[in-house]
Structure formats: C-alpha cells, structure tokens
Amino acid sequence: MPARSIGTATISFGLVSVPVHVYSSAESASAISFNMLHKKCGTRLKQQYICPKDGEIVPNEERAKGYEFAKDQYVTFGPEELKALEEKATNTIDIAEFVPLATVDRVYLEKVYYLGPDKGGDRAYRLLSQALADTGRAALGQYAARGQQHLVLLRPMNGLIVMEQLHYQDELKPAGEVPLGEGEVRPAKLTLAKQLIEQAASNEFHPERYRDQVRERVLEAINKKVEGQEITSEPAQDGGGKIIDLMEALKQSLARGAGDGDRKAG
C-alpha cells in the first residue's frame, strides 16, 4: 500500500525549487491510552475547567489564554492577537546552508519526515538527493507549518530525502549541567569493557530484532479483560545479586557472553 502524503512543500535553495510531498516516518497511534471512567457506572468522564476562586465551571466563551510573566500575574491574548503572532505557512523549506552531516549532533533531533517528489519535481529531487549523498552534506534551513517556524535538516537516505525537524539551540539543556561524578578509567578495566562491547557488537543496525514487550503485554491484558478473564500478575523475577566491583562485573559479563557463544555454536 503506497504511503499517504500528509502535506506538500517546496524545497528552495538559490534559484532551484523542488516540489515535494511530506510523509510521516512512523505510526503515532502505537501508544496505548486509557480513558477516565466513573467507577460506579462505567461512564466516560468529561473534563471541565473550574475557577478555584469562584468555584464555577467556566464555559468556553469565558476563557482566555494568558502568559504568566511573574508569580500569579498574567498578560492575556485574544484569538485574533494569537493568530497575528503565528508564522504564516508558506509551504517552503528555505535552505540557508549545507553542512557536513556528521557535524549535526543527534541530540538536536525532534521529529522525522520522509519527502517524496511532487509532480514535476522528479529530476530535481533525484539530483538533490544524489548531490547530498556524494558531498556528505545535509541541507539546513527553516520550514513554516501549523503556525510555527521549524529548524529542519534534509539528508539523503538510499535515494530518499529525509527531513529532520530539529530543536533550536535555546531549547536544549546544557549537557554540562549533568553531574558526572569522579572516577578514574583504569586501563585494565577499559580493556575488559572494550572486549565486552566487541563481544556483543554487530556491523549492521537491525531494529526488527526488538519489539515493545510492554505494549504487547498491555494489549494482551486488554484482550483478556474484553473476553471476561481475570488478570493475574506474574511473580517478579530475581535479578540476581548486585555486583559492586566493576572489574568483576566486566569479567562475569564476558564469561556469560562466551558461554552463550558456545551454546549457539553447539
């Protein structure tokens, strides 16, 4: 079944324009959500806004949006004011520069979309994709959509152009604020750690080997409930004793990995 476009855009750099379709790169409906019910009758509850000062339910026409600039102090904005502040959707991906793909840290990544050529853009699309692949560069620019202006990165992937929505610099928390503690990396321990990594190393990325076991367990429990069965929890498995010594932990991990390899070989 062909992918369904969620929108259109135009990649623009210099005097070149490439019309494209925008596609979702993942299913957003994979998360399982629960609704709040009235335990007494099983009816789904409705959410209401209540003023804590007056104790009244506030209808939609009496609500306003406000920004808290100081403790319990707000400036309010009406619908027309908010609309005037929104970025007008131009449907244009304005490329500002081309940067080495390897220099863009993955911490900036927020969302991923696929781009496909729109009518009349096949040749220009393929040309851009190939040029990016050959130069090892990615296109960095901005894209206005849904009232917001996004920082985006276009990169090639097997002939396809992928659009990554990035965080702006001021949205990221400084990595230097994370406490790292103190500790010396001893050569012997480092050698064992490297051996452990190589023991479980793969030369290719195979995401199909992994699945969301928690989601599967929740779905199974839901199906049992639907069928009128009772849910029973399994006893917690013993995770084994904690190993305090790092060197001993590395040695035991290597030994366990070697044992698994012998069993597979047999």
Provide a short characterization of the protein structure.
Helices cover 26% and strands 27% of the residues. It is of the alpha+beta class and 266 residues long.
What does this structure look like?
By secondary structure, this protein is of the alpha+beta class. It is 26% helix and 27% strand. The protein has a seven-stranded mixed β-barrel with strand order 1-2-6-9-8-7-5. Strand 8 and strand 9 (160-166) form a beta hairpin. It starts with 6 loop residues before the first strand and ends with a helix.
What is the CATH C level class of the domain at 7-27 and 86-171, in words?
Answer: Mainly Beta
Rg: 27 Å
Secondary-structure element order, as H and E?
Answer: EEEEHEEHEEEHHH
User: Could you tell me how far the N terminus lies from the C terminus, measured between alpha carbons in angstroms?
Assistant: 42 Å
Helix and strand content put the structural class at alpha+beta
List low-pLDDT spans: none
Largest sheet: 7 strands, mixed, barrel
Question: Tally of extended strands?
Answer: 9
**Second-tier CATH architecture of the domain at 7-27 and 86-171:** Beta Barrel
Write out the strand line-up for the largest beta sheet, numbering strands in chain order.
1-2-6-9-8-7-5
Q: Average pLDDT value?
A: 85
What would you call the shape? extended
**Count of DSSP helices?**
5
Strand coverage percent: 25-35%
What fraction, in percent, of the residue positions are helical? 25-40%
* CATH third-tier fold name of the domain at 7-27 and 86-171: Ku70, Chain: A, Domain 2
